[in-house]
Amino acid sequence: MNLDAFGAVRSELNPNLSLPSHAPDLNSLLPEGFLERTGERRLVVKQWASQLAVLSHDSVGGFVSHCGWNSILEAISAGIPMVAWLLYAEQKFNKTMLVEELKMALPMNESQAGYVSAEEVEKRVREIVDSDEGNKIREWVLAKRDEALAAMSDDGSSRVALDKFFESWKT
C-alpha cells in the first residue's frame, strides 16, 4: 500500500488502563470529508501502534520527531532520518545534538513568536525525503543504524555493558 497520508489518533484514556478503552469515532476527530477525500491513500491508526514498527516500514522516508530520547533511538534503530521539532525540556539539547553534532536531522525552524508554519513543515519534510542534504543524512543514519544494531547484538557493547551492570548488583 502506497500511503500519501499516515496518522494516528487517540481517544480519551480509560483511567484504569493506559490505553483507550474503545476505538475513537474518526468522523468526530478528523476534518469533515477527510476519510472520503483520502480514500485508499491513507492509513489512520485508531489505537496504539508500535512507533518502531511504523518507522521500520519500507515506505517511511523520514520522521518528524519531537526529539524525545526514545523516539530518537527508535528512528536511528530503523535507519530513518529526522526533522527535529522540539516541544520542551531536554528536547532542545537533543535537537541541537541531532542537527549540529550528529548530523542525523534537519531543524524545524520556528518564527520569532515560536510558531511553525505549514510551509516550513512541508519544506522540511520534502527536504528530508527528496534532497541531496536529506540523502546525505539518510546515508549517515543508515550507517549509524548498523552500529546501533551491532551494539545491541548478543556480544555487542550495549549488551555487554548492561550485563556488567546487572552483575554489579549481585556483588
From TrEMBL:
This is Isoflavone 7-O-glucosyltransferase 1. It comes from Morella rubra (Chinese bayberry). InterPro entries: UDP_glucos_trans. It comes from the Eukaryota. The keyword Glycosyltransferase applies. CDD domains: GT1_Gtf-like (cd03784). Keywords: Glycosyltransferase, Transferase. Belongs to the UDP-glycosyltransferase family. One of its GO terms (molecular function) is UDP-glycosyltransferase activity. The keyword Glycosyltransferase applies.
